[in-house]
Write a structure and sequence with these properties.
Helix content is 55%, strand content 9%. By secondary structure, the chain is mainly α.
């Protein structure tokens, strides 16, 4: 009987060790999936890019679709870029037509905004919040571009918008028919910016300069500033969606 008990005691740890070894979870890596060393219907490889590198990552296709991953990385790659390209001004172009740019702006705004609002991204609060911030930025820049274009058609509108109070000296100069007031405000701006007077008293140049570097810069500062994470932080957060990520290639700096 004692011999039997001793054998059982010796067998139990050996058996437990064997079970633990067999049940040990195999680490999921890109290389193992690519070489078919791990077989699964749910593990997929996704290739993606940031501004300098190419990556391959392993993800669970039951949690995200490739479309969601693609759209989410597109979101990351656009957060630090100007999303509306329609110009609010034109450099001393006598043929510049604000109405034409207003039409272009409406088309671009609807296309870009709808594209982001309907975009299927990874359904997590972090990424949803990032997209919502991007849409808010698009809305605010659209409003500023539209206001600036409309005011060039009707200069009195410089005095009747939500940016007027903060940018009153530029608004009053651009709304005025008095060339001396325009020139005086422009010279003050040049002194504040520590720049030389290089207009040659050309009022078209002065108006353009005041509109872009006075009014626009001032009004743009009134827009709610959205502080996005750095690209590297966004990429690291994105990598958390995957079991493993492998850098394939990077451009020379």
């Amino acid at each position: 009987m004692k011999n039997t008990i001793c054998l059982l005691i010796l067998f139990i740890p050996v058996f437990l060790f064997s079970q633990n070894k067999n049940n040990k979870t195999q680490k999921i890596t890109v290389d193992k999936v690519l070489k078919n060393k791990i077989k699964s219907d749910t593990l997929k490889i996704y290739t993606w890019y940031d501004e300098t590198c190419e990556y391959k990552s392993v993800y669970n296709s039951n949690k995200y679709t490739e479309e969601q991953l693609k759209n989410t990385v597109s979101l990351i790659n656009n957060v630090h870029h100007l999303l509306l390209q329609t110009s609010p001004t034109s450099f001393m172009d006598k043929d510049f037509e604000p109405d034409r740019n207003l039409n272009l702006l409406e088309e671009e705004y609807n296309k870009v905004r709808n594209g982001y609002s309907q975009m299927k991204i990874v359904d997590q609060p972090y990424w949803i919040s990032l997209r919502d911030s991007l849409i808010k930025e698009i809305d605010e820049h659209y409003d500023l571009i539209k206001t600036t274009l409309q005011a060039q058609k009707n200069p009195q509108l410089f005095l009747k918008n939500k940016y007027t109070s903060a940018c009153i000296k530029y608004a009053e100069a651009l709304a005025s028919d008095n060339p001396e007031k325009l020139m005086e405000t422009w010279k003050e701006m040049k002194e504040e910016r520590k720049e030389k007077n290089d207009s040659g008293n050309n009022l078209d140049y002065v108006r353009f300069d005041l509109l872009n570097f006075g009014w626009w810069n001032c009004a743009n500062h009134q827009i709610h500033s959205i502080s996005y994470p750095d690209d590297s932080d966004l990429n690291e957060k994105y990598k958390e969606l995957f079991f493993d990520t492998k850098t394939i290639d990077c451009e020379e700096p």
